[in-house]
Structures are given as C-alpha cells and as structure tokens.
Amino acid sequence: xxxxxxxxxxxxxxxxxxxxxxxxxxxxxxxxxxxxxxxxxxxxxxxxxxxxxxxxxxxxxxxxxxxxxxxxxxxxxxxxxxxxxxxxxxxxxxxxxxxxxxxxxxxxxxxxxxxxxxxxxxxxxxxxxxxxxxxxxxxxxxxxxxxxxxxxxxxxxxxxxxxxxxxxxxxxxxxxxxxxxxxxxxxxxxxxxxxxxxxxxxxxxxxxxxxxxxxxxxxxxxxxxxxxxxxxxxxxxxxxxxxxxxxxxxxxxxxxxxxxxxxxxxxxxxxxxxxxxxxxxxxxxxxxxxxxxxxxxxxxxxxxxxxxxxxxxxxxxxxxxxxxxxxxxxxxxxxxxxxxxxxx
Length: 344
Hints:
Elements: E1 2-4, E2 7-8, E3 25-28, E4 31-32, E5 43-44, E6 53-54, E7 71-77, E8 83-88, E9 96-102, E10 105-110, E11 114-117, E12 123-132, E13 137-138, E14 142-148, H1 160-163, E15 178-182, E16 189-194, E17 199-208, E18 214-221, E19 233-235, E20 239-242, E21 247-255, E22 263-273, E23 278-287, H2 292-310, H3 314-343
Parallel strand pairs: 1-3, 2-4, 3-5, 4-6, 16-23
Antiparallel strand pairs: 7-8, 8-11, 9-10, 9-12, 12-13, 12-14, 15-17, 17-21, 18-20, 18-22, 19-21, 22-23
C-alpha cells in the first residue's frame, strides 16, 4: 500500500502511521506543513528516488531511507571570485524554488539545482533552502562547510577509480568544470536586436578547465508559448568532445522567420558535460519592425559577401570602381563640352 501526493496541515491527522504487513507502506511526494509522525514502523519514505517535503522547523521522526530532501552534492571555488554549487532537488508535487545563502546572507534565488555565481559576502558555510511557492513555506535546508573567499586548489590527477570507469555523477574533487560562451568577448548573456527575416551568425566556445576529457552536449531551452526561438536557432554541432585544457568551437545560426510576432524572446543555450555540470548562455532576442537603416545594413552585408565570394582583393575592386566612376564622369563631361562647342 502507499500514501502519496497529500498535503498535511493538521497535527491530528498524521500522528501515527505504521505497518505490520510484510509489504509495508510506501510514503512519498507528500507535503508536511504541520504535525509530526511518532511512529514510522514498516514505512518507507523513498519511491523511485522521490521522497517528501517537510516544513523547515519539522521536529518529528523521519524514516532513515527518506530521499526527498535537498542535498548539496558539489561545491567548487574557481579562485576568480566565482563559485559553483550543485544540489539534489527537493521532492514535491508543488513548485519549488531554492534560496542560496552564504552563512545567513541570501546570495540568489533560482529554480535550477545548480548555480554559478559571485558571492557578495565572506562565509564559512553555504546553505540551500527549498521554498514551496504554492504553500508559501520553506522546507528543511542543507548546509555545506565552505570558506569564501579562498584560492582554488590545483586539481590533482584523476584517481584510479575514474580512469577505470568509476562513477562521479556530480563531478569529482579533481574536476574543474568548463566555460561556455559566445563570440570572442566570452559573453554568457547576449542581446540581439532583430527584425523579421533577420539572420544572426556566431560562434559558441567551450573551454575545458580540467585535466580530463569531457563530452559536452548543447541544447536549446525555451519556456514561452508562441514562436519558439529554438525552432529557428540552429546549432552546428550539438555534441563535442573537449580534451583537457583545450577549446572547442561550433557555429550558431538564428534565422528569424518573416512572419514572427514582434516582441522580446528570452531563451537559453544549455551545455551539459558527462559529469552533470551545466553552463548556460542567455539570449535576449528583441524583434522589431525593419527600418531603413536595417535595409541599408543588409544590402551592405550582401555586397560584402559578393566581394568575399569573388576571391578578388578588396583594394583591387575599389580601384576598379573608382576608375569606372572616373571614366563615366569624364565621358559625360566630354560630351557636354562637345555639345557646348557645337551650340556656340
């Protein structure tokens, strides 16, 4: 038997749950805002890696196999002012956000289970508090001993377990992450002013900062409803293998449809490696009506492409154009002068 997807808000309705049957009771994806269990005999609180949500000040008993709580699994200080933290999600049927603290100072709020950020304070531990947005309560937090600021240590060689195929689902102590950006400015956020029919071309850059090769998968993520920009954003190569301390490149092309609805579109390019580390590039696409200046720029770009495809040096083409214009001007002047003499 099982008990699942319930919201407990009263002290009287959950005082005791136990099972004397050999099969026991499975208890998962429940939310306990008030009350506490006195007896969990024969009760399992983990089903398919989903457990339960307990209000932050919960003081009751809890089964030893409870697997639904937030659990910080990875922390890394890059030594350049940025840190990375990764955690296991909070089980719940409700909408959960995560509040990340350095000691007791709030650093960020996110819906993700991984964050890379620049702390605003010094701290000796970091804390993640899950927040139930529907029931407006915090759940049980997890803390992790971490001192900031500190200099990131030099990554040692990969352990023998990793070399022989050991599993490190959230990265390992020797793993130093990777960077993911667009163009030469190392941008992780870009704004693109576009118009219907506009074409954007760029280069995605992945730098492996570790001393082990990584497989990186790139995808597009959009949470909107209409005109999904991922449908007209083409990533040249969505799967890359990057050697230690090496850089890999792949092209990106955004072809804005001519019938797109005008407005702003926010979406992400997501890169995830085989260690589960994730980096995002945020794209703000602002689609407006095409202006005369846009048209001039577009024609200028087309002319440049024609010149490049011809294979002739730019200086030679400019010289030919100047000579042609000079010849036309002289011819006009000559015939006008001849005409004037005839009339006189």
